[in-house]
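Hello Y.,

Per our agreement to keep a running log of every chain we model this quarter, I'm adding this entry. I've kept the format consistent with earlier entries: sequence first, then predicted structure.
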Amino acid sequence: MNSLTIHSPSEEFSLELGRMIGSILRPGDILALHGELGAGKTLLAQGIARGLGIPADIPITSPTFTFINEYEGRLRLCHLDLYRLGEPDELETLPWREALFGGGVAVIEWPERMGTLLPKERWDVRIEVTGEDSRSISIAALGEKARTRLDALGAELARTSESFPGGR
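Predicted structure for the entry above:
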C-alpha cells in the first residue's frame, strides 16, 4: 500500500490515530506533517508521542520558537516546527541532521520549508480541515520501509475501526 486516507471525526480519533502511527514507527522514520494553521499537526504529533511511549504527563508542544523539541520514549522523538524558517539555508544553524538521522523518529511540521533538504524516504501526512472537529488525513509512504509500516497501520485501523464510530 502506498497511501491511505482516513476520516477523523474528532480530536480524540486524531490522537488515537497518532498513537497507532507512533506504535509502529522504527528508528530512522521521518514523518512530514502538512496542513494549514490549526489543522491538527501538533495534535497528531501528541498522539505519535504517546505511541512511542512518551508519558502522558509530558506535554508535547509545537516548537515554533525553538524549532526542535526532543522527547524520550521507546524511541527518541525529535519534533521540528519550521513555520518560522525563512529559507532552507537557515537550517544550517540548527542540529536538523541529528534530529532527522540520529536514530530516533522525526516529526516535521511545515516540511515544505526544507525545500530539497526534505528526505526522500518518509511518510507524507496531509491534514485537511473538513469541519469544526473533523479532518481528512492522507498518509503517503515514500520508500520501502514506510510502505511496509503503512500496511501494518492499515491493518491496525481495520481492527480498531469499531472503537471510533465515524472514523476511517
